[in-house]
From TrEMBL:
The chain crosses the membrane at residues 6-24, 88-111, 117-136, 267-288. One of its GO terms (cellular component) is plasma membrane. Residues 159-285 form the Type II secretion system protein GspF domain. It is a multi-pass membrane protein. This is Type II secretion protein F. Coiled coil: none annotated.
Length: 292
């Protein structure tokens, strides 16, 4: 028991001293990343020195599959411009949580002498970073579903305006006028696209960049349909958009059914727990009376 407390105490001191040494060595190397807008990162000040450890240790080379999946999710949410830096921030956040939980586990084990505190700290240090990565991947899926659910509505408005004689650029701009301050990911990407063609990008370049940023199959289909038929104009273009709109509405119905099934399946576990609690509450007095 005494040896465990001694070892855990030394480990806690080593973790603190290691962080202090990294803090002094990194200096202002990562100061530019402090103002980078990234949601969900709560330990930036703690993780900043650990970024040097990740870079010097070659974390992306040692874990290429994990780093690739993480950066791909970051690109879908935040775009490609600063994806490498944001990926590094996410990895630093994960390492900071692991460091903090290991420090807490070693500290509790040193104070109490209980090995369970150290084991719990190690387990949480492994599981919590994995949970953060899973949460990021879940955000990507939610973003894709939001785009998929909103795209048929947008396309219906574009079809009406194009049928009335508007160009596709003007139709998209008019659809955005009422949703300019909307935080929906589809309208944010559309606003970026309109800014691109207003600043000199061709229509094809702007639509291709829009499709890459969204990274959703239905958006790629919409982009391909527009680029193939925009030169035809008139009734052919409107007819192609109308056919695509019907397809997207069918896919939206399928996504809605899937989400409804997922919501109903999530209720199964709480219902089972409530059923067990009711059985215990009802059965315990009867069992006690039988024993008496």
């Amino acid at each position: 028991m005494g040896n465990l407390r001694w070892i855990c105490g030394l480990a806690a001191i080593a973790l603190i001293m290691g962080w202090v040494a990294l803090r002094a060595r990194s200096g202002k190397r990562y100061a530019a990343l402090r103002s980078m807008p990234v949601d969900g990162l709560r330990l930036r000040s703690l993780s900043e020195p650990l970024l040097m450890l990740l870079e010097k240790g070659g974390a992306t080379r040692k874990f290429p599959v994990f780093a690739f999946r993480l950066q791909r999710s970051v690109q879908r949410i935040y775009g490609q411009r600063h994806s490498a830096e944001i990926t590094l921030l996410y990895m630093g956040e994960m390492l900071a949580y692991s460091w903090l939980l290991l420090l807490g586990g070693c500290g509790l084990a040193a104070l109490s002498g209980e090995p369970s505190a150290l084991i719990l700290g190690i387990m949480l240090a492994i599981l919590l970073p994995a949970a953060l990565a899973a949460d990021l991947h879940k955000k990507v899926k939610v973003r894709e579903q939001l785009i998929m659910m909103e795209l048929p509505d947008l396309l219906s408005g574009i079809v009406l305006l194009v049928s009335a004689g508007e160009t596709v650029q003007r139709a998209i701009t008019r659809c955005l006028e009422s949703r300019k301050n909307d935080s929906h990911p589809l309208y944010r990407e559309l606003l970026t696209m309109t800014g691109e063609w207003e600043s000199g990008y061709s229509l094809q370049q702007a639509f291709e960049n829009f499709s890459k940023r969204c990274a959703v199959q239905e958006v790629s289909l919409f982009t391909t349909t527009v680029l193939l038929n925009v030169r035809r104009g008139g009734g052919d273009f409107a007819l192609a958009l109308r056919d695509l709109s019907r397809q997207l509405w069918e896919k939206r119905k399928a996504v809605s059914r899937t989400r409804g099934e997922q919501a109903s399946s999530k209720l199964v576990f709480p219902m089972v727990v409530i059923f067990v609690i009711v059985i215990v509450l009802v059965g315990t007095p009867a069992f006690m009376m039988m024993n008496m």
